[in-house]
Design goal:
heterodimer; A: about 425 residues; alpha/beta; Rossmann fold; de novo design (two linked rop proteins); 3 domains; about 15% strand; B: Alpha-Beta Plaits; 4-stranded mixed β-sheet; binds flavin mononucleotide; binds iron/sulfur cluster; binds FE2/S2 (inorganic) cluster
């Protein structure tokens, strides 16, 4: 049964991304024309009705974010498309840039038109090097056809886009670290005393959006918001690109309507667990996401229901783990990722990761103590509550949810060495 | 401005919009613990100790969060205390806890937090970075195994001093605060101002301690050990013993130094007066003979290090006068030695300075007279306090005593050398009277006083208006140098002091030199000046006598040899030979 949908992914593999003509034939840039007819106010209210939330992880209302930005005055204003996609197990932004770069560009132009921005950046992670020139090429073509540059489509909008390469660190996907990185500084999150929408890149008004967020705007305008919100649930409207991977038969990026169950995603879309094994747990939203045990797979994939179980949509990653995976070993791989990616700026994340790594290693080798379980939970919470940025705040999510859902796996590893010898 | 009314721990308080939670809490007598926060610096919010609960289950840092109208804040909830303690435990697990042997014992902000939270037991396993101490230079020690990564030193080094030696490097557990490429300070253009040591909350950056060297000299019966005290020390050292900042304790320092065993106790103010005589005449000479102008003062060694390193093309603008410390040293080994009929090698000259760069200055090879080192040891204010404490002297109650002669006879002009604008004011008092041959009616040049970064004044010298400027903090000096560089400077005379506020804010002063404290010390200095019977350098009878008996006249031959110096460009790699005395010290210490 095909449970995927085609709203944002409509054009995937339907046209040659090096040909703007083919994009135009598929109805490309119609949304931009419509947007110019609508005017900024109507675009903002349409987005609010659409319920579109930031797809970069923080899930902030896109309509409200654009409204803030539109209200900030400034001769030079920036739009940054966040294509750092550093979250492990996440690759849906790559699909968008690879198979439908013009849609992302069109989304950025609409954002520029709505907020009165002058300069755009697409910050693409370094590992996606092969995409840099492809996207540059698409920008060039859009410019040639008058969709970028001066007085775009007679709307009075002047807007240009540049591609910048990521600095290779996960934390650079965090919007303020990303800004520091574009400014040529070392990518560490900065203290936000004023909103980025007021003072962002080079101290000027800046709007940062995820690739998917931007790509979702043209279809919403094109098909009409009423049509769009027929997808999804009452509170989680529309559709989402997910990155399905791990021990499933058919990994890949898929577009699903919110409200679909996890079971449907894994078995109907993903073709079930590889080699006929049993599902043990899922990790949702990448390395910073929660672990959900197999018994909860009938919950709906939407913002509210996941939150009820301590999980979130996050980047849209869904990592599937079968019965052969040990939770503690899995946590070690997550922990290794975070201790590598912490920028080191704040105490809880720098020192917390150092300590969690030590303790998790003891669980892996089987010589943890009873106190270790309490200690690891205590400091995981310190990190969650006290860290400077989202990285440190979410680094212990997997650990905390694992302790909640799989306590036995931890007990089994306590003093195993001493017990057996 | 709008006001916000908030509730902190069930107590309502109204503060202007834009106030931080930290400040608002102070209004209701709640001191939220902090570590990275510094009253004179931008908010960093990286230590995360100051967390408070702003909504059930939501913690925010009090230092960086502005109050929002109607906010309810809890600073003592279980979540707050557990998290604060947790953060502290995390710091401690990575901290060499050797307080008993630490230079900051008793004055450490981390130690204070530990006292507050009393962490007797932690389940964390210590992992302490064994990092090599950087003791490569005569002024500053960097022990970054104790660094808690607050970034305060970076801000002072980059923003206040504009030198940008310290910065951060690496990520995660390797994250550290270091000069570029983890060079030793001696191999950078560090100016040794010590401002970083003064803002560091812990014992990660501190002055090189030379007290043992001085004790050894004092115990050596063959040495005649004399000491000079810089003007700025007398209004700050009291703080080390619990006195209020700015309290004048000159007589007590003199008495304490005698108790410690110094043979003679002198005042650097004397050579400050002498500096004015030489520098004032140098200025007039340059004006009359068309020499390089503007002329810039040269008494602040951190400043000299800066211009030598960053603006070597402008070295001609520097006055050739040695600093008062070095003039004193030179005279001690010549004029004074002769007077006492001692061989210069028998004299050991110590100076008590507010400054770490003075240690470096004393070791420069230019700073030797007739082959003898001008100054043998330099102690900062903090080190002298340490000696006084170790000698069990009840400092605040000790009976006051007077300086010895001849280098104890001084004027108000000498004393104001300790504050920004002081050298300028002292020079103007003298230059005006020398040129106009009229008595100055008002000795107080208010335009050059105060904490503004760059100050200007115009003085009428017999119908010729001369424009002068005063800068303190190297980032301000940089602005003035750039003007000169671009040929846009219309000043005749410029005073530069390396440290904010001048020497009273020097890097060797008691820990806690906030701007507020600096203001108090400045007030203390001007109070001393006001009540001095003599307030102009050229009226100092001992200085007059010195010229009659020994030097001849300002800028004369002997002056030239003893009291003036030369400068040279400084490159990143300081050759160790450049510090001529370094080897010798190393040898004698073995
Ligand atoms: C550690 C960290 C990494 C992040 N990485 C990304 C990323 O790779 N891509 C992204 O779009 N957002 C990332 N974000 C979220 C951004 O900070 C920001 O919220 C987002 O780009 C805003 O766009 P949106 O409103 O369209 O989601 C990251 C956040 C954190 C804390
Ligand atoms: S939580 Fe702190 S240390 Fe970790 S990445 Fe963010 S700012 Fe850096
Ligand atoms: S820095 Fe502070 S806490 Fe650390 S050893 Fe020194 S006194 Fe103790
Ligand atoms: S002594 Fe001065 S120049 Fe050197 S590192 Fe410290 S603040 Fe920077
Ligand atoms: S050296 Fe001191 S001031 Fe600098 S970051 Fe470390 S603790 Fe802070
Ligand atoms: S004092 Fe607020 S975070 Fe350090």
């Amino acid at each position: 049964m095909n449970r995927t949908v085609n709203i944002i992914s409509k054009n995937f593999k339907k046209y040659n991304p090096e040909s703007i003509e083919e994009y135009l034939e598929l109805g490309g840039f119609e949304a931009l024309k419509k947007a110019i007819e609508m005017g900024p106010q109507e675009i903002i209210s349409t987005l609010k009705t659409s319920g579109l939330k930031g797809r970069g992880g923080a899930a902030f209302s896109t309509g409200r974010k654009w409204e803030y930005s539109a209200n900030v005055k400034g001769d030079k204003k920036f739009i940054i498309c966040n294509a750092d996609e550093g979250e492990p197990a996440t690759f849906k932004d790559r699909y968008l840039l690879e198979y439908d770069p013009f849609k992302v560009i069109e989304g950025m132009i609409i954002a520029a038109y709505t907020t009165g921005s002058t300069d755009g950046y697409i910050y693409i992670r370094e590992e996606y090097k092969y995409l840099h020139n492809k996207v540059r090429k698409a920008i060039e073509l859009a410019e040639k056809h008058g969709f970028l540059g001066k007085n775009i489509l007679g709307s009075g909008l002047n807007f240009n886009i540049k591609v910048v390469s990521g600095a290779g660190a996960y934390v650079c996907g965090e919007s303020t670290a990303l800004i520091e990185s574009i400014e040529g500084k070392s990518g560490r999150p900065r203290l936000k005393l004023t909103r980025t929408s007021k003072q962002g890149l080079f101290g000027l008004p800046t709007l940062v959006n995820n690739v998917e967020t931007l790509a979702a705007v043209p279809p919403i305008l094109e098909m009409g918001v009423e049509e769009y919100i027929k997808y999804g649930t009452h509170t989680s409207k529309g559709t989402k690109l997910i990155s399905l991977c791990g021990n499933v038969n058919k990994p890949g990026a898929y577009e699903v309507p919110f409200g679909i169950t996890l079971r449907e995603i894994i078995y109907d879309i993903g073709g079930g667990i590889k080699d006929g094994k049993q599902l043990k747990f899922l990790q949702l939203g990448g390395a910073s996401g929660a672990i959900i045990p197999a018994k909860l797979i009938d919950i709906k994939y939407c913002y509210e229901d996941l939150e009820e179980h301590g999980a979130s949509v996050g980047s849209g990653a869904i990592l599937v783990a079968d019965e052969t995976n040990k939770v503690t070993h899995f946590l070690k791989s997550v922990q290794d990722f975070f201790i590598h990616e912490s920028c080191g700026k704040c105490t809880p994340c720098r020192e917390g990761n150092r300590q969690l790594t030590k303790i998790i290693n003891r669980f892996v080798t089987g010589n943890a103590s009873v106190e270790d379980l309490k200690t690891v939970e205590k400091f995981a919470n310190v990190m969650k509550y006290a860290s400077f940025c989202g990285l440190g705040q979410t680094a212990p999510t997997a650990l905390l949810t694992a302790i909640k859902y799989f306590p036995v796996e931890f007990y089994q590893q306590i003093d195993r060495i001493r017990k057996t010898s | 401005m709008k006001n916000c009314t908030i509730t902190i721990d069930n107590k309502e308080v109204t503060v202007p919009e834009g106030t931080s939670i930290l400040e608002a809490a102070k209004k209701v007598s709640i001191n939220i613990p902090t570590l990275c926060n510094h009253p004179d610096q931008t908010v960093k919010a990286n230590c995360r100790i100051c967390l408070v609960e702003t909504k059930p289950g939501k913690l925010e840092t009090a230092c960086s969060t502005k109050v929002r109208d109607g906010m309810t804040i809890n600073t003592v909830s279980k979540l707050v205390r557990d998290t604060q303690r947790g953060v502290l435990e995390l710091i401690l697990a990575n901290h060499p806890q050797d307080c008993l042997k630490c230079i900051r014992n008793g004055k450490c902000e981390l130690q204070k937090l530990c006292e507050m939270f009393h962490i007797s037991k932690s389940n964390l396993e210590d992992e302490i970075d064994a990092l090599e101490k950087d003791e490569s230079n005569p002024s500053i020690v960097r022990d970054h195994s104790k660094c808690i990564k607050c970034n305060r030193c970076i801000e002072v080094c980059q923003e206040v001093q504009g030198v940008s030696i310290l910065s951060h490097a690496h990520r995660s557990t390797k994250y550290c605060i270091t000069p570029a490429f983890e060079k030793k300070l001696v191999n950078t253009l560090c100016v040794f101002c010590g401002q970083c040591t003064s803002v560091c909350p812990v014992g990660a950056l501190y002055e090189k301690d030379d007290t043992e060297k001085v004790w050894n000299a004092l115990y050596n019966d063959n040495l005649h050990v004399i000491v000079q005290i810089a003007p700025a020390v007398r209004v700050s050292i009291g703080e080390e013993f619990g006195a209020k900042p700015g309290t004048k304790v000159t007589g007590k320092v003199v008495a304490a130094l005698r108790r410690l065993g110094f043979d003679k106790v002198f005042d650097t103010d004397f050579t400050a007066d002498l500096t004015i005589m030489e520098e004032g005449h140098e200025l007039l000479d340059r004006i009359n003979r068309g020499g390089t102008l503007p002329m810039i003062t040269s008494c602040s060694p951190g400043w000299i290090n800066y211009i030598e390193g960053f603006y070597p093309q402008l070295l001609d603008h520097l006055s050739s006068c040695k600093s008062p410390q070095q003039m004193f040293g030179a005279l001690s080994k010549t004029y004074y030695a002769k007077k006492l009929d001692l061989d210069p090698s028998q004299i050991f000259t110590v100076s008590i300075m507010p400054c770490t760069a003075k240690k470096y200055e004393a070791e420069r090879k230019e700073m030797s007279s007739y082959g003898y080192r001008d100054v043998d040891a330099v102690l900062t204010t903090r080190e002298l306090a340490r000696m006084i404490k170790s000698a069990s002297i009840d400092f605040l109650n000790i009976e006051e005593e007077n300086f010895d002669e001849p280098f104890g006879i001084t004027t108000g002009a000498g004393v104001i050398f300790g504050v920004t604008g002081g050298v300028m004011e002292a020079a103007l008092r003298t230059v005006y009277e020398v040129v106009t041959e009229h008595e100055l009616e008002n000795l107080d040049f208010m335009d050059v006083r105060g904490l503004e970064g760059i100050k200007e004044a115009t003085v009428d010298l017999n119908g010729t208006p001369i424009k002068v400027a005063v800068a303190h903090g190297l980032s301000n000096a940089k602005k003035i140098l750039n003007q000169i560089n671009e040929g846009k400077s219309d000043y005749t005379f410029i005073e530069v002091m390396c440290c904010p506020g001048g020497c009273i804010g020097g890097g060797g002063q008691p820990i806690g030199s906030t701007m507020k404290v600096r203001e108090e010390r400045i007030k203390g200095i001007y109070d001393v000046d006001k009540v001095m019977p003599l307030r102009k350098s050229h009226e100092n009878p001992a200085v007059k006598e010195l010229y009659e008996e020994f030097l001849g006249q300002p800028l004369g031959k002997i002056s030239h040899k003893l009291l003036h110096t030369t400068y040279s460009p400084r490159s990143e790699k300081i050759d160790f030979d450049y510090l001529q005395w370094n080897n010798e010290i190393a040898l004698t210490e073995e």
